[in-house]
């Protein structure tokens, strides 16, 4: 069974309560030994990603909380002389891939009897959490930077949760919600808590099913790193059971104005000193201190992949180029298209581009 533990001191996640960091050392929580996946335990009668429920590490009696997440289309394409496949994660119920992690996270909350929680987000995770909280009847407060896009703020409020606007960059919203957590609120953090990783890993299972083969390369935007790490864990689980033989090359894409993992991987640890939380239209990856950075860096390097940083002036044209091909995504999602222009020639096919969030959220 998939289990969770502190990445630092290896203490198992406690059976009761809902700490967002290790109660002993404050370390970041993660998977104990990767995701335990077995094709024979797939429950094909369950909706969307819930057919892989056995791999989520949920308690036996955890309820299914579903709005139809998962099973997103994979659309074939051609570009730069390469065979491409676009994974339309923006067609998830709240308009972003975050729903894959939120569904098992909210199931964990219910299994532990929690009816009241706080969360913070640049927008997409907040909207996703609001949607699933509404579905599950959980009372939620979501802290969002005051510069989050209007549509995302409207969406969060429409689900009936309390929206708390915090001035300043995204890190300020994170600090505010941690303060709330210290005064007793349950912090259902999509970034700190590891419960969403097995949900995100279902992208890998779907890709192999839809392609009928292992992708050669996978490109995804990277903020805290949960998306690409979750995908990597999914491919590892498939490899461990012999369903696939090789891992795809993983490419993590950041906005040049806030690109800590690109800086670290190309210039070493000293480069982190000059990485700032710069303003970027790619709001979803404006994360200066990625919580899963070390883990993701190791995974990307061992896959033979790399990190790419995209200059600001290239992000919106990349968004427009995807829209002209019928794919309307938000600027953060378009990072992968700009990156592909630079490195397509070195990537193995088929090349999968994860399109993370809907363009309707950024208008
Ligand atoms: Zn610990």
Which features would summarize this protein structure in a list?
11 helices; 3-stranded parallel beta sheet; binds zinc ion; alpha/beta; 363 residues; 11 strands; 6-stranded mixed beta sheet
Please explain how this structure is put together.
- With about 375 residues, the chain is of the alpha/beta class.
- It is about 35% helix and about 15% strand.
- It is built from eleven helices and eleven strands.
- It has helices at about 100-110, 125-135, 150-160, 170-180, 195-200, 200-210, 225-240, 260-265, 295-300, 315-325, 330-345, and strands at about 5, 30, 75-80, 80-90, 115-120, 140-145, 160-165, 215-220, 250-255, 305-310, 350-355.
- The strands form three sheets. A six-stranded mixed β-sheet has the order 3-4-11-8-9-10, sandwiched between helices. Strands 5-6-7 form a three-stranded parallel β-sheet, sandwiched between helices.
- Helix 7 (about 225-240) links the parallel strand 8 (about 215-220) and strand 9.
- The longest helix has 15 residues, at about 225-240.
- It is globular.
- The protein starts with a strand and ends in an 8-residue tail after the last strand.
- About 50% of the residues are buried.
- The structure holds zinc ion (ZN).
- Zinc ion binds near residues 8, 11, 22, 24 and 27.
């Amino acid at each position: 069974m998939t289990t969770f533990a502190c990445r630092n001191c290896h203490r198992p996640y406690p059976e009761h309560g809902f700490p967002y960091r290790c109660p002993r050392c404050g370390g970041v929580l993660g998977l104990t030994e990767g995701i335990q996946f077995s094709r024979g335990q797939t429950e094909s009668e369950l909706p969307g990603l819930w057919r892989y429920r056995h791999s989520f590490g949920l308690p036996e009696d955890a309820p299914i909380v579903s709005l139809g997440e998962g099973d997103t289309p994979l659309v074939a394409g051609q570009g730069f002389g390469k065979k491409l496949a676009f994974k339309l994660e923006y067609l998830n119920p709240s308009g972003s891939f975050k729903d894959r992690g939120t569904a098992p996270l909210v199931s964990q909350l219910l299994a532990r009897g929690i009816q009241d929680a706080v969360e913070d987000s640049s927008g997409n995770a907040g909207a996703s959490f609001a949607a699933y909280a509404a579905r599950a009847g959980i009372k939620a407060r979501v802290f969002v930077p005051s510069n989050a896009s209007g549509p995302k703020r409207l969406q969060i409020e429409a689900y009936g949760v309390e929206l708390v606007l915090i001035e300043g960059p995204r890190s300020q919203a994170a600090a505010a919600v941690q303060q709330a957590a210290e005064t007793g609120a349950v912090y259902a953090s999509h970034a700190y808590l590891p419960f969403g990783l097995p949900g995100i890993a279902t992208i890998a299972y779907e890709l192999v099913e839809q392609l009928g083969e292992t992708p050669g390369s996978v490109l995804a935007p990277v903020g805290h790193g949960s998306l690409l790490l979750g995908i990597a864990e999914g491919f590892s689980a498939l490899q461990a059971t012999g369903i696939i033989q090789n891992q795809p090359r993983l490419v993590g894409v950041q906005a040049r104005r806030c690109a800590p993992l690109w800086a670290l991987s190309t210039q070493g640890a000293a480069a982190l000193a000059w990485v700032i939380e710069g303003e970027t239209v790619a709001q979803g990856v404006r994360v200066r201190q990625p919580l899963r950075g070390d883990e993701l860096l190791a995974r990307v390097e061992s896959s033979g992949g790399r990190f790419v940083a995209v200059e600001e002036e290239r992000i919106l044209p990349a968004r427009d180029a995807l829209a002209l091909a019928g794919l309307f995504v938000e600027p953060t999602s378009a990072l992968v298209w700009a990156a592909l222009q630079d490195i397509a020639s070195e990537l193995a096919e088929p090349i999968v581009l994860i399109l993370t969030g809907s363009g309707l959220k950024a208008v």
